[in-house]
Design a protein that fits this description.
alpha+beta; 3-stranded mixed β-sheet; two-stranded antiparallel ribbon; 13 strands; 24% helix; flat
Length: 215
């Protein structure tokens, strides 16, 4: 969004907003004033349709009064993040991936697919936050800033709090889900599992839920 772009109120279902910005917003003369301006054959419509359904079922929305210049890439990532998603081009087209509690297993890594002596596990032993505080703009409470907090499992008196502002989130339930999602990542993604595989076994992508088997 450049200096000449008007201040816009962006509000609505997350997947639909992403699709709108990927296609682009044009003035009455057809000039692109916001968004990417991509044709549909360069957009992963199928992934966006699935993301729209997911966000609608979860009640996720993105509601932002945009007042400062920002890159379209950062804006798309902020919108997708409000629905536990992220922009992706894994199909060769611009689309999204997202994380769901009923996400199916799409790939398997085992001794037959890994290259010998390439398997490893690296643990992050540094102290991380045992509480996450998310601040959001609550429309249901007189348009004021509110906070939701998520504690790590087994923590009753937190010692280390990480604070973050949720962009475009104006609902307490949505903010709480995102806080729990972030704490889950902080708690359970503290190790990195790595291995080498041949290209013929690369059937997975970023965000894929994998099954792992090793001796």
């Amino acid at each position: 969004l450049g200096d000449e772009a008007p201040v816009e109120l962006v509000e609505g279902h997350i997947g639909a907003l992403i699709l709108m910005l990927m296609r682009g917003v044009r003035d009455v003369d057809g000039k692109l004033i916001a968004g990417l301006g991509l044709p549909d054959d360069e957009i992963d419509i199928e992934s966006l349709q699935g993301f729209m359904t997911f966000c609608r079922l979860k009640g996720f929305n993105f509601d932002l009064f945009l007042q400062e210049n920002t890159s379209i890439g950062d804006l798309l990532e902020s919108i997708a993040a409000a629905g536990m998603g992220s922009r992706s081009e894994h199909t060769g087209k611009v689309g999204v991936i997202w994380f769901s509690d009923d996400q199916p297993i799409e790939g398997v890594l085992n001794m037959a697919t890994m290259k010998p002596k390439s398997f490893g596990v690296e643990y992050n032993v540094q102290a991380t936050a045992d509480e996450i505080e998310y601040q959001y703009f609550d429309r249901a409470r007189n348009n004021t800033w509110k906070s939701v907090r998520g504690l790590a499992p087994g923590v009753t008196v937190p010692q280390r709090t990480a604070r973050q502002t949720l962009q475009g989130v104006t609902d307490e339930v949505q903010a709480a889900i995102l806080a729990r999602f972030s704490m889950g990542q902080n708690t359970f993604q503290r190790k990195t599992v790595s291995c080498d595989v041949d290209l013929e076994h690369m059937t997975f992508r970023r965000g894929t839920k994998m099954a792992l088997s090793h001796d």
